Amino acid sequence: MKNLNLYFQVHQPFRLKKYRFFNMGKDHFYFDDFLNRSILQKVAAACYLPMNQLLLKMIREHGAENMRVSFSISGIAIEQFKLYAPEVIDSFRELAQSGAVEFLAETYAHSLASLTSKEEFERQVRLHADTMEELFGVRPATFRNTELIYSDGIGEMAYNLGYHTLLTEGAKHILGWKSPNFIYANAIKQEQKLLLRNFRLSDDIAFRFSDRNWDGWPLTADKYIEWILDQEGEIINLFMDYETFGEHQKRDTGIFEFMEQFFTRAVKHPDLRLRTPSQIAATHEPVAVLHVPHPISWADEERDITAWLGNELQDEAFSKLYSLQDKIYRLNDPDMTRVWYALQSSDHFYYMCTKWFSDGDVHSYFNPYDSPYAAFMNYMNVFSDFKREVEHRVG
């Protein structure tokens, strides 16, 4: 019997407007409302609403005990749903009320705080958990960090916040010969259970599904289930962006039909069962300790953090941003904190990435700027004005 753990990440950043040097000191609104509204409503119509409806249909047809999936929804995405598409929150509430869905904890701002500030990381995780409980009536019991970023130390911080189950990437350079299809233990807090993404099977849907040059095309539900059954191990963790459905893989690729057939066949298969991370952690024990001294993630071939940090642009913007932390705390102004969170989203640092290796097309696809340097200049113009405002108010 193989346990299928399907986890979906839901996130949209607050995109910055074009903010020039001459705006500084005069214009203190930094976000492109029109662009954020249009993108959010477009993705809601193409992905969130129809895919939520498909999941609800599958739950009603097959029963909540058989149809299980999990989500993490960033606080930044929740804020935009409230502003631009409140019906999306309603549709997630319907899923929550079905009893078939587990909502996971993460950083509220979809931030990289775990890499620089224990205090900010803990504040955001607590705020996110409060938000999930308020919206969906259940406090998260499982943690996934932004971009599945994980190290032994990050796992320990999450453990100390009460999260004894954590999702991360099944990175080859960490696993070596070992399989991602088992539970592992944190090297520092060995009571913490780690569920590792099977990146090949996950990316078959997320990235390769519509690629006609892929030797697996066309992907059918029966073929995909055969691949799952051929895997060694007892747990298959399929983690992907929720925007895969209808946005990255457009409706006309057949992605919704594929998922409906996949769920129907998986639920009925005698050797498969859909389970949430908490359910799997409750019934399985770690097979080994996993040593991860340096942060890993689910990005690029390297599975490290160089998509967001490492070049001079990223590191300068990142260090300057978090240098404001103490002043933001002293100010304790909800409006300024909201901007502070929006500026922390990992997307802004991703846009500054100068890596153009095998993953260059991926970085280009998700980047609204002409170059990493344009992204950096725009961000730093915004930051400089924001910093001036914070310091003025702190006095």
Automatic annotation (TrEMBL):
Stored SUPFAM superfamilies: Glycoside hydrolase/deacetylase
Glycoside hydrolase family 57 N-terminal domain span: 6-293
Alphabetical list of InterPro entries matching this protein: GH57_Enzymes, Glyco_hydro/deAcase_b/a-brl, Glyco_hydro_57_N
GO terms under biological process: carbohydrate metabolic process
Keyword NAD: no
Molecular function terms from GO: catalytic activity
PANTHER family, per database record: ALPHA-AMYLASE-RELATED, ALPHA-AMYLASE-RELATED-RELATED
Protein name per the record: Membrane-anchored protein predicted to be involved in regulation of amylopullulanase
Higher taxonomy: Bacteria, Pseudomonadati, Bacteroidota, Bacteroidia, Bacteroidales
